[in-house]
Every structure is written in C-alpha cells, then in structure tokens.
Design the sequence.
C-alpha cells in the first residue's frame, strides 16, 4: 500500500465515523427548524446509532464475501443518498428514517480495516491500522465542530448536504483507487444466514479473539464510564460548568491522532502483547489521576484533563494492538472477526456507561474512578495469566510465508 492510499483510506474512515457524530451538534437546530421539542429531536441521533449497530451485524461480515472495492463504493453511495434524503426531509419522521439508513450504511471504516490488513505487509500492519484509527478519531472529534459551525450559519440541513457530497465524492474515488481483492471461494459459496452466525462461531473457536475482545470491552467500558460521568461531574455543583466545558475537555483526545500510529509501529516491532500491557497499566494509572478531579477547583480540572488524556491514549493504543492480533488470525475471515471484536467492544462500552452513571449517582466520582481501575485490572489479570495456546499469533514468525493473505491479496 502506498502512503497516499493509506491516507485516503484514513480520510474515508474519518468521514464514515463522523456521520455518526455530527447530528449530535445540530439537534437543537433540528428541533427549531422542524418545530419539535429538543428531546424529540434526539431521535435522529438514536436512529443513527441503532442503524450503525445493525449495520455492524448485517453488513460488515460481507467484507469477506464480496470484493472490498465494490462493497465500499456501494456503501458510500448509499450513505451519500441517505444523507441527501436527510438533508431534504420535510419533517421529523422522514429525517429519522433517513438517519437510520445513514447509520446502517456508514460502516465503511469497519470494511477498510480488514481491507488494509490484507493489502499491507505484515511488518507494517500495526502502523497502517494506527493511521486508520487516527482517521476515525479525527472524524469523531471534528464532526461536531464542523456540523455545529456550519449549522449555525446555514441551517441544520447544510451539514447533511455537505456530508452527502463528500460521501458520494469518496465513492467515486474509491472506485478508481482501491485495488481489487478476491474473496475466498468458500466465503462466496457460504449462505448469507451462515455469515451472520459466523462471528459467534469464531468467538468460540479462537481464544486469541476472545482475549482481544475482553481487553477492548474492559478498556472501552472504563472509557465510556469516565466520559459519561465526567459530564455529570463538570455540570454538577462541584464545578458548576456548562456543556461547553465537556466539549473542550474532549479535545484532549486529539493527542491520540499522533499516538496511535506510533503505537502501531511498536506493535510491528514488538508484537501486540507489550503494547496491551502498557495500555492496560495506563488505564489503571489514569484512574488514579482522574481521582484528583474529585477535589474540585483548578487542581481538580488539571487532574481531569491529564487523566482523560491518559485514558484516551491508553485505550486507543490498546485497540491498535488488539486489531493487529485479531487480523492475524484468519486472513479469509477478517471482516467476520472484526464484527465479533467491535460488537464486544461496543457492548463493553454500553455496560460501562450504564455502570458509570449509577456509580456516580450512588457514590460520586471516586466510585467511577474505581470502576475504571477495576475493569482494567480484570483485563490485566487475564493478560498476566500463563499462556495455554503456544500457537499464539503474536509469537508466530513474521515471515511472508507464515502470514500470506492468500484469498485477500489484491490482483
């Protein structure tokens, strides 16, 4: 893979992920423009998130059954048309329906990861995955700013229409620059219904997939618990700040744009396990730093800033290591592996958010910090257990023959 193609794929990841987040910033504008309550307007965001979850289950596994280029072009085109429909919606029900379709089809980032893993040499896979993850993170961080600024100036429809043009433009570019890949013959012959069940079968059959899923579910659970609860802390009586303060604090995540490619290079050099170890220790340390935030004042804000920065970097770097391990398992089933992995990660994040809010409500911010540390400690304990599977992909020889991608190779 050329550097230009890697950057283009990272941009596409950012655009796809950004489609999930930019509606959050224009919710109040939608409420005003369509004459509904702000609470009702949040159905747009909910529909997008539900659609994305369904797309993860129903569409991402198809990356093993169809050529990646064809699937990417179709998904980006459908996303662009759905965004166009959302931007032209005359009332809330059509907007909610179009938003669900946007979420369903904007899973391009989950297709690009397995594609890149198959095109790149094994000793560069971590660095490339880190760059793609940086693109996704950039899209998540910039989407709200982009839509909020554009929406304030041109109305809530403008972000949807601009995003539609960008998605359709990327679809045209993907059709020209993405190499043609050939799925395995067995995957092509496999019935669609069997594909939907395959991620569960892989979870049962692959110990290293289960291990990676546990690490990411625990890390993302702690991450979600902290970020869900920090909004309650900052806007509560201890700090008395507004929602803008939460948005400014979230900008510290921009540091991960630099850290994840570096973590990927470390994975290429030393394997995923050492990076996982450091990332899990980093999450435990972040919980201790975040605890300073319970004291309030300037010192508390400094602790929250440093703690969230450490938590963001540790979680994202661990994700690079986990993805590198997962993609090394079965080259002909990377999309199905990715579905299993990302589903577990999002379930962990959902449970973490739920637990975090309840811990904060019942016992305050120190309980949230304890929850973050506990989740990381569970994954760390598993990581330090003796290995039972000598055929660990982390320890396989890093030779072309040992990691050839066979059916996923580009023509």
Sequence:
């Amino acid at each position: 893979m050329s550097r230009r193609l890697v950057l283009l794929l990272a941009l596409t990841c950012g655009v796809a992920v950004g489609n999930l987040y930019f509606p959050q910033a224009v919710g109040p504008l939608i409420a005003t423009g369509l004459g509904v309550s702000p609470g009702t307007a949040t159905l747009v965001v909910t529909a997008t998130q539900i659609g994305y979850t369904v797309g993860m289950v129903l569409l991402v596994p198809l990356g093993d059954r169809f050529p990646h280029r064809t699937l990417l072009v179709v998904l980006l085109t459908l996303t662009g048309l759905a965004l166009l429909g959302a931007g032209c919606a005359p009332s809330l029900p059509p907007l909610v329906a179009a938003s669900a379709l946007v979420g369903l089809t904007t899973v391009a980032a989950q297709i690009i990861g397995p594609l890149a893993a198959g095109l790149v040499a094994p000793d560069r896979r971590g660095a490339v995955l880190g760059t793609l993850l940086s693109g996704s993170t950039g899209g998540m961080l910039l989407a709200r700013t982009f839509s909020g600024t554009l929406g304030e100036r041109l109305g809530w429809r403008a972000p949807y229409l601009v995003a539609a043009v960008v998605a359709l433009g990327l679809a045209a570019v993907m059709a020209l620059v993405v190499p043609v890949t050939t799925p395995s013959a067995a995957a092509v012959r496999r019935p669609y219904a069997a594909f939907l069940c395959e991620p569960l079968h892989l979870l049962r059959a692959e110990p290293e997939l289960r291990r990676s899923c546990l690490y990411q579910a625990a890390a993302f659970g702690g991450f979600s618990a902290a970020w869900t609860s920090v909004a309650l802390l900052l806007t509560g009586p201890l700090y008395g700040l507004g929602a803008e303060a939460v948005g400014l604090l979230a900008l510290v995540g921009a540091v991960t744009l630099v850290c994840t490619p570096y973590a990927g290079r470390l994975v290429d050099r030393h394997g995923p396990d050492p990076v996982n170890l450091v990332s899990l220790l980093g999450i435990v340390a972040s919980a201790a730093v975040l605890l300073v935030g319970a004291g309030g004042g300037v010192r508390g804000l400094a602790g929250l800033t440093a703690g969230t920065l450490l938590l963001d970097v540790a979680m994202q770097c661990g994700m690079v290591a986990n993805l590198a391990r997962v993609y090394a398992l079965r080259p002909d089933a990377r999309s199905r592996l990715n579905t299993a992995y990302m589903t577990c990660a999002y379930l962990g994040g959902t449970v973490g958010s739920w637990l975090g809010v309840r811990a904060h409500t019942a016992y305050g911010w120190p309980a949230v910090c304890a929850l973050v540390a506990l989740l990381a400690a569970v994954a760390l304990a598993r990581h330090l257990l003796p290995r039972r599977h000598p055929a660990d992909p982390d320890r396989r020889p890093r030779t072309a023959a040992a990691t050839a991608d066979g059916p996923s190779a580009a023509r």
Q: What stands out?
A: The CA atoms of residues 117 and 125 lie 6 Å apart. The radius of gyration is 21 Å.
